[in-house]
Amino acid sequence: MTSREIVKKTIHFEKPDRLPYSVWIDIPRFEEEQGENTVETINDLVSNAKTDFILLDIQSDSNWKPDKKTPILESLVGYFHDERIDEWQVTWKELRVVEHPLEKSWSLAEYYKTPDPFGPGRFDKAKTIMKKNKDKYHLGLVWFTLFERLWMLRGFNNMLTDPYTDLSEFSRLREKVMDFNLGLIEQWLNLGVDGIFISDDWGGQQKLLVNPDYWVKFYKPGYKKMFDAIHAGGADVWMHSCGNITELIPHLLEINLDVLNPVQPQSMDIDCLSRQYSGKLCFYGGADVQETLPHGTPEDIRREVRHLVQSFGKKNGGYIGGTSHTILPDTSLENIKALFDAFNDFCSHPDFELVKNHK
User: Fold this and answer.
1) Which of 6, 130, 297, 326 could form a disulfide with 24 if both were Cys (CB 3.0 to 4.6 A apart)?
2) Residue closest to 17 by CA, chosen among 347, 355, 356
3) Whole-angstrom distance, CA of residue 71 vs CA of residue 295
4) Strands 319-320 and 282-284
5) Coil, helix or strand for 304?
6) Are 20 and 319 in contact (CB under 8 A)?
7) Beta bridge partner(s), residue 54
């Protein structure tokens, strides 16, 4: 099987030869805090791993120039200390939004223009990567998709109350963001990607950030529209949402989500998810970056990966190995190596009985 076939069969429970995996590591933070030697070791681990799918990001419109005298943020990758501004006029510092362009008043939205999804240069880098990795599963990003994009523009507290205090303005801004997303989706599909990866963090450590009825009323229709467009174009829908979003999973299944990431074991019950949704939804992630990886032993890591594969990968696929979020420099090289070794071993034995007996 090609890498593309392996990922496809994993997502659709069609008994792949092995399970794919992909580990997220904050390389710039490691370099800043631990130096080039550590990064070199990590890069060796990554380059020697089985890479079956490629994440593809967009770039900024090549004609765009920022209004403020701050460095341009081409894409949100890496950790930086100075302020950066993105195409949406949102200001970032150290991976945090520090200024929201529409926060002070809805009057600012009257003349606000969202970026052009069809702007020149957006997909040039992605096209080059796709040509060099023709046998891989190509996964296009439509990141900070809806809820996150809206609160980045209006401020978090505003966005929670906007649907109740000014539904017409909220709906108008939401549709502008949706138009941008649908434009990106259209172009990713025209490029022939295999899947499209959206993101919105809806969960806190213990429960949803909002009432589920709020999500259903104000956001579910938008997700359904995007999911339908992606499926109509022959691609799979992947969704990243941090925290405990257990209450949303039935709704996401109803609108045909294919892959859920990152699966945080400190927030959601792995065994419960397995009992309820194995064979219905493909899970991606789960290796715990909050506790096991930074504070556990290599044996703990191996045990956890084995449990994840047993729990989610037992229905002829249905599991893509990965972490519960990005690995940070509080994790030792020994434990990072143990994680790669465990994924190499257990994902190579997707059959449940084989994994069960593979120590």
Assistant:
1) 326
2) 347
3) 37
4) parallel
5) helix
6) no
7) 138
Q: In what order do the strands lie in the sheet with 91-93?
A: 84-85, 91-93, 96-99
CATH of domain 3-357: 3.20.20.210
Residue 93 gets which letter from DSSP?
A: E
Q: How far apart are CA 7 and CA 21, in angstroms?
A: 9
pLDDT tens, 318-339?
Answer: 999 999 999 999 999 999 999 9
Q: Roughly what angle, to the nearest 10 degrees, separates helices 167-191 and 220-232? A: 20
- The C-alpha atoms of residue 248 and residue 209 are separated, in whole angstroms, by 11
C-alpha dihedral (23, 25, 27, 32), degrees to nearest 10: -160
pLDDT digits (tens, 9 = 90+) for 298-322: 999 999 999 999 999 988 999 999 9
Distance CA 283, CA 324 (A): 11
For the stretch 29-56, pLDDT in tens is 899 899 999 999 999 999 999 899 999 9
Q: What is the DSSP letter of 12?
A: T
DSSP 237-303: EEEE--S--GGGHHHHHHTT--EEE---TTTS-HHHHHHHHTTTSEEE--B-TTTHHHHS-HHHHHH
- Whether the CA torsion 267, 271, 275, 280 is positive or negative: it is positive
